Amino acid sequence: CAFFTGKLNIGVDTVQHGVEGLTYLLTESSKLMISEIDFQDSIHVLGFSDELNQLLLQLYLDNRREIRSILSELVPKLPSYHSLEWRLDVQLASRSLRQQIKPVVTLKLHLNQNEDQTAQVLQTDPSTLLHLIQQLEQALGEMKTNHCRRIVRNMK
């Protein structure tokens, strides 16, 4: 940075903001894999010269695949579903209450993560489980909307 600030007579903050802006431009464009035309439209509004716009376009085209591969390595590897076991327990009575119904659903969720298999045990009552199912079904329904399909398509 001292080289740039001394030779170009600009402040360290200006150089830092320029590098951060260039990094942001290239990573976001690479994430979305935007076309040449879309990239040119995006940088055209910045007011740079045509020569600089062409240099930025060439920089983007030369490096977008490598940037995407680096970004994919930075994504945390989340566990994936393997199987599910469940059991329904119902307490019908106790010493103090002769007639009671207290259901409990026990779930054992088997997950795969980096070649290892783990299990998570969860317990809930049926009403909470039904609410969770409704929320998941609503989320799946939202994934079928045009807006979400567009976002998912651009993420690939």
From TrEMBL:
Domain COMM, residue spans: 80-147
PANTHER family: COMM DOMAIN CONTAINING PROTEIN 2, COMM DOMAIN-CONTAINING PROTEIN 2
Protein name, per record: COMM domain-containing protein 2
Organism listed in the record: Pelecanus crispus
